[in-house]
Amino acid sequence: MPAEIQDLTGKQLTALPAGLGERVDLKALYLDDNQLTTLPDSFAHFRHLETLHLDRNRLTVLPDVLAQLTSLKTLSLMHNGLTVLPDWLWRLPHLQSLYLGDNPLGAVPDQVANLTTLTDLYIHNSHLTALPERIGELVNLHTLDIGHNRLTHLPDSLGKLRGLKYFLYISNNQLTAVPDSLFENLSDLRYLNLTDNQLTTLPENISKLASLQELRLYNNRLTHLPDSFGNLANLKELHLMNNPLTALPESLGRLHNLTHLDLRNNRLTILPDSLADLHNLAFLDLRGNRFTTLPETIRQLPNLKKLDLRWIKLRVVPNWLPELEARGCTVFK
Questions:
Q1: What string of pLDDT tens digits covers the 333 residues of the chain?
Q2: Rounded Cα distance, 333 and 114, in Å
Q3: Is-contact 118 91, C-beta < 8 A?
């Protein structure tokens, strides 16, 4: 291990080893999975430290000595007991990645917008009931995780995060709707997770997510999908399990890059004829729907590798299923 990196993960430390404070050359320090409740003043010597991990310790407040670590680019504080964040945190000039998830914070202040160099922000499972309105000023943000909170609405400013491209994770909240503004400027976003909410509909302008490759919407209350869905030309995976969908739009057939379509446990009795146009579809899950017959369009999918028909009460099993199996498709029925 290079001399400028020190890994003390999982040592059950309640205090730092003697002499560590003299390591003024350190650039990365890993102290995860210990029992630290505070940090010594000698931390101020780590003026060149760029990466600090303190996940799964027993911190309830952040020691002010950390304010002197002005070279920090990555700060990870997940799984502690933090309930409030100090003002100096929002003044770290070079911070790029901030991991605050799994702390009982209750709120994140507007000052988070001062971290203009931030690219990754994880504030999942932090007992949040709202997001700061100024979060939209984090224009360099690539990744945002706000899942597993208690959010009932999203601020319009969230849609200003034009830099989001890797993923936006909003799963396990209490959302009943998504504002139109959310999708206005996220044309580079590749992964969106809105699972485990209470959504009944989606805005038509979801089609503006031009780069989206994976969309997860399961465990909601969606009764239909907007016709504009077919404009998500780069979508590869669509997960819609456990919704009360009764039909799918014909525009679905325009998703020519789609490889995975999960429709488990909906209320579907028919599929759109355009399904036959999904020439790259490899995995189709229809379990637990209300089909009594299967459309022959499924037979026309040339690259289908797995078809799941379990828990469907078909009046007649299609005679073309053996043909699919002969082509190398695994059929569960």
A1: 677 999 999 999 999 998 898 899 999 999 999 999 999 999 999 999 999 999 999 999 999 999 999 999 999 999 999 999 999 999 999 999 999 999 999 999 999 999 999 999 999 999 999 999 999 999 999 999 999 999 999 999 999 999 999 999 999 999 999 999 999 999 999 999 999 999 999 999 999 999 999 999 999 999 999 999 999 999 999 999 999 999 999 999 999 999 999 999 999 999 999 999 999 999 999 999 999 999 999 999 999 999 999 999 999 999 999 999 999 999 999
A2: 55
A3: no
**Partners of 191 in beta bridges:** 214
* Residues 275-280: contacts with CB under 8 Å, at least 24 apart: 275/301, 276/300, 276/301, 277/253, 278/252, 278/253, 279/303, 280/256
d(CA 177, CA 184): 15
CB 243 within 8 A of CB 220: yes
The domain segmentation of the chain, as residue ranges, is 223-333
CA-based nearest residue to 72, from 54, 97, 40: 97
Is residue 203 within 8 Å of residue 180, measured between CB atoms? Answer: yes
Is CATH 3.40.50.300 the classification given to domain 223-333?
Answer: no
Cα angle 90, 92, 93; round to 5: 120
What dihedral do alpha carbons 221, 225, 231, 232 form, nearest 10°? Answer: 20
C-alpha–C-alpha distance, residues 212 and 183, integer Å: 11
